[in-house]
Amino acid sequence: MNDIFKALNDGTRRDILEMLRKQEMTAGDIADQFNISKPSISHHLDILKRADLVTSEKKGQFVVYSLNTTIVDDIIKWIITLKK
Which pTM was predicted? Predict the structure, then answer.
């Protein structure tokens, strides 16, 4: 759970999740939306993957990233239990 909150603690990573909520994207497509280096985007994607918030799949010569909605559902359920 700590990895999840660490990943969510950064605005760029939250922006990446928002983009992936709408559609799958390659790292290059994601990087094109930011004014930071591609290695920095790769670092952000690695943190999101370690937190299991995104998944990646090799499609031809590209790696396509998508939002892992299962873990998002788990986080929401956990947060709701805090209110009880």
Answer: 0.89
